[in-house]
Design a protein that fits this description.
The structure is a single chain. The protein has 5 helices and 23 strands. The protein is mainly beta. Strands 2, 5, 8, 10, 11, 12, 14, 15 and 16 form a 9-stranded mixed sheet that branches. Strands 6-4-1-3-7 form a 5-stranded mixed sheet. A 4-stranded mixed sheet has the order 20-17-19-22. The longest helix has 21 residues. It is elongated and about 150 Å long.
Length: about 325
């Protein structure tokens, strides 16, 4: 009786304060529960499957899953698929050629502030095979074209071959692997970039060694060749000199090369050939080189003949120098 009396006295002592404390505790618990029970669905989270050495995935029913997570609204709001991963660890597991494996929230790797509560789909079907390796060439995946007036001259991949490891039945039919695409749009100069390799298929797993290669793309200005025949030769003489020149032969053929837009707009009258007489005296006859000034963006490839016989004499009345 004394014990009951003491207990009753304790319960009734400051009863109002005790009831208030209980209400505050309950309210706090409810607030915490509401603050940390916000749910959000994260779609397309990658599914990673770990196997023992010597095994590979020939076929899988899913590569990505949807995860329902729970946590505070602030933590869940900024959560992305890149921060999460589902790992099915089949190492030290008795492998079967075909198997169905359960996917549970405990396999989800996510920030500690949130908790996974559901995985959809909840299972994955795997077809396994023994792993083999094969040496395959690498092909650079080139997109687009350089701007007008430029052209892709060549592509060099280093290393040119990589070791592909995967299920024996799958890699037998793989002849090459590609790089992540390179876009040539707007590029005016040659360049080099490191590029990751793209797996041959998303339906089965493959490993490539090395997983990245160096790609060198050579870009040059597009050039065009044009030949001009019977370009008349002019004499380069001192100003006001009453001299005349005669050439044998009187014309030459000129071959040039340059940017296509420049060469296309050249007319025959814009191509001139001349001989510089320098200090050659009147009455002299000599073999002199023919010169052809190159317009901007153009290279003179050949002058035929490169040397002509030149005869310098006094100009007669009415004769042009």
């Amino acid at each position: 009786m004394r014990i009951l009396d003491s207990l009753l006295s304790w319960l009734l002592d400051n009863l109002g304060k005790k009831i208030l404390a209980i209400l505050i505790a309950i309210g706090t618990w409810l607030a915490i529960r509401d603050a940390t029970s916000f749910e959000h669905l994260i779609a397309d989270v990658p599914l990673t499957i770990l196997l023992d050495e010597g095994w590979a995935i020939q076929e899988r029913s899913v590569s990505e899953v949807n995860i329902l997570v729970r946590g505070s609204q602030l933590d869940v709001r900024f959560l992305t698929r890149d921060q999460m991963e589902v790992v099915l660890d089949l190492t030290r597991f008795r492998h079967e050629d075909v198997g169905i494996y359960e996917l549970t929230p405990s396999m989800v790797r996510a920030p500690k502030a949130v908790r996974a509560v559901q995985v959809d789909p909840g299972e994955v079907r795997l077809v396994l095979d023994r792993e083999q390796e094969k040496l395959v060439p690498v092909v650079a995946d080139i997109l687009g074209q350089p701007p007008e007036g430029f052209v892709q001259e060549g592509v060099v991949v280093t290393p040119s071959n990589v070791v592909l490891r995967g299920p024996a039945q799958r890699i037998a039919g793989v002849e090459s692997v590609k790089t992540v695409p390179l876009d040539l749009e707007g590029r005016l100069r040659s360049f080099q970039l490191n590029r990751n390799l793209v797996p041959p298929s998303e339906a089965w797993s493959a490993r490539m060694d090395p997983p990245q290669v160096r790609v060198e793309v050579r870009i040059v200005e597009r050039s065009l060749r044009r030949d001009y025949t019977n370009v008349m030769i002019s004499a380069l003489l001192p100003p006001g000199a009453a001299l005349a020149a005669e050439f044998f032969p009187p014309s030459v053929n000129v071959a040039l090369r340059g940017r296509s837009d420049v060469v296309t707009n050249l007319t025959p009258g814009m191509i001139r050939a001349f001989v510089d007489f320098g200090d050659l005296s009147v009455g002299s006859r000599s073999d002199l080189p023919v010169q052809v000034p190159a317009p901007g963006g153009v290279e003179i490839l050949a002058i035929d003949p490169p040397v002509v016989r030149a005869d310098l004499r006094m100009a007669t009345e009415g004769q042009a120098p």
